């Protein structure tokens, strides 16, 4: 049995001779990672075996003897393939630099002094309420060390908070690539994150 496969580039499907599954006709959906390597993920296939093994039957509605019941054909559909395989592909593709909408470490708040810890906690609660993953670095590390740790941990954004930010109701934004984007009102920053999350932006 042959499998059918296609790519976005060729815009269609093609037969993979001799690469068949033992189930029955099967469609493989293959994706390419950042290094142009192909990975098989999603599949849709017909399964003639399991209905036999589980002795599955359905009523046909026929009154003819011997035709009252029939054997179904099972359709297997895996939207991502195995979870482990899809996760591995994503790890390879993004090299640990997860886009905001996938990232388990989206925002790190960094107070430059312990006097601003409470403000950071307030901002954290605001972001968390909107569904974002947010941490606050309340350690005794130096400011440079805190920023470095957040970058190594691949937080999408580091929000630096000092006296000026507390006074203005803002946060000072840095990206994980150490690009400084400057001050932004907390509400505006929340709206920016929501738009990025909802539109699946790739930073």
Task: Give the oligomer, counting copies of the same chain as homo and different chains as hetero.
Answer: single chain
In terms of DSSP E residues, the strand content is 25-35%
Major sheet strand order = 2-1-3-4-7
State mean pLDDT (0 to 100 scale).
Answer: 88
Structural class: alpha/beta
How many distinct helices?
6
- Give helix and strand order, one letter per element, not per position: EEEEHEEEHEHEHEHEEH
Number of strands: 12
In whole angstroms, the N-to-C terminal distance is 42 Å
The rounded Rg comes to 26 Å
- Shape annotation: elongated
Low-confidence stretches: 1-9
Biggest β-sheet, characterized? 5 strands, mixed
Domain module count = 2
The percentage helix is 25-40%
Write a compact overview of the structure shown.
Helix content is 29%, strand content 30%. By secondary structure, the chain is of the alpha/beta class.
Features:
single chain, 203 residues, alpha/beta, Rossmann fold, 2 domains, 5-stranded mixed β-sheet, 30% strand, disordered N terminus
Question: Care to describe what's here?
Answer:
- The model is unreliable at 1-9 (pLDDT under 50).
- The protein has helices spanning 50-53, 83-94, 117-129, 143-152, 163-168, 186-198; strands at residues 3-7, 12-16, 26-32, 38-47, 58-59, 69-70, 74-78, 107-111, 134-136, 157-161, 170-175, 180-185.
- 15% of the residues are buried.
- It is of the alpha/beta class and 203 residues long.
- The strands form 3 sheets. A 5-stranded mixed β-sheet has the order 2-1-3-4-7. Strands 9-8-10-11-12 form a 5-stranded mixed β-sheet, sandwiched between helices. It has a two-stranded antiparallel ribbon with strand order 5-6.
- It is 29% helix and 30% strand.
- The chain folds into 2 domains: 3-94, no CATH class; 107-198, Anticodon-binding domain (Rossmann fold, 3-Layer(aba) Sandwich), CATH 3.40.50.
